[in-house]
Automatic annotation (TrEMBL):
Pfam families xrefs: Lactamase_B (PF00753)
Protein name: Glyoxylase, beta-lactamase superfamily II
Source organism per UniProt: Desulfoscipio geothermicus DSM 3669
Gene3D superfamilies according to UniProt: Ribonuclease Z/Hydroxyacylglutathione hydrolase-like
Stretch forming the signal peptide: none
Metallo-beta-lactamase domain sequence ranges: 41-211
InterPro entries: Metallo-B-lactamas, RibonucZ/Hydroxyglut_hydro, Sec-metab_biosynth-thioest
């Protein structure tokens, strides 16, 4: 949380709804909860802007999120990617007749019930099948147009949403923290760097992040994350050139093993960062 505090996370007009925190910043409604498991904790956030719901939160907090959804005027929803902490409550929204959009590549994934390892079912809850609509072009709400930006790396279907009028970007899981220390096995670090470079071409300041919340100095923090990954990549590739193994490089750069690595049986690990830098180029 120390790094996240540096990101100037804004909590204004905080309201507790049975564990759900609700705030409003620059016209965007933000709702978040904290998930804890065996010493690990993670904040997760969803956003509503002009009737558009961005991500749906984990089903572990379905009762709280559904209560919140019913208090809002939601016309449509969009998922930044298919992971269950972002799509967990999408099936309920779809049953209410609310259109749910996602990148076309993950529509088939969402039409099947998510098969998750046990720790993720405990951490986030499951995700039932539903039928989202494929994103084709930008998203239009009643009063605005949001640019859909393909931003893969964290997942193959990851997108970001750019609000030119407000100078803001909804980044899903692209940011999270300026110093990445652990990733999931399928993540592609070179792709993440490419997505960060792409977003940094846009004119914005505020970032609405799925796990850091509202980041007021968002463009600066995205640039800081990119610089960190680029510096790390340079070091990793140099050590690899000298003949160091992935395991040895990981032990040098990340001497401590994160608790989530043990909890997840290695699905989350710092070693995935090293391997991806070397193999995914």
């Amino acid at each position: 949380m120390h790094e996240l505090n540096k990101c100037s996370i804004i909590f204004w007009q905080v309201l507790l709804l049975r564990g759900l925190r609700v705030e409003k910043y620059n016209g965007v409604v933000c709702a978040g909860c904290t998930v804890k498991l065996l010493g690990s904790r993670l904040d997760t956030f969803i956003f509503i802007d002009d009737g558009l719901l961005i991500d749906t939160g984990p089903s572990r907090f379905a009762r709280e999120y559904i209560q919140f959804f019913r208090s809002q005027s939601i016309k449509l929803a969009v998922l930044t990617h298919f992971h269950e902490d972002h799509s967990g409550n999408a099936p309920w929204l779809a049953l209410q007749g609310i259109p749910v959009y996602i990148h076309p590549s993950s529509v088939p994934v969402c039409r099947r019930r998510a098969e998750l390892p046990l720790y993720r079912r405990f951490f986030w809850g499951g995700r039932d099948r539903f039928s989202p609509r494929p994103l084709n072009g930008d998203l239009e709400t009643e009063n605005k147009n949001l640019s859909v930006i393909e931003a893969p790396g964290h997942s193959f279907d990851h997108i970001a949403l750019y609000d030119r009028e407000k100078g803001a970007v909804f980044t899903g899981d692209l940011f999270v923290t300026p110093k990445t220390k652990i990733t999931m096995r399928p993540e592609n670090v070179p792709q993440i760097m490419g997505s960060l470079r792409l977003l940094l071409r846009y004119d914005f300041q505020t970032v609405y992040c799925g796990h850091a919340g509202v980041v007021k100095n968002g463009k600066e923090m995205l640039a800081r994350k990119l610089a960190h990954l680029e510096n790390m990549s340079g070091e990793v590739l140099e050590l690899h050139r000298r003949g160091w193994s992935i395991s040895a490089i990981n032990k040098k750069i990340f001497p401590k093993t994160a608790p989530l690595t043990y909890i997840s049986g290695g699905e989350w690990a710092s070693q995935h960062i090293i391997r991806s830098i070397i193999e995914d180029r």
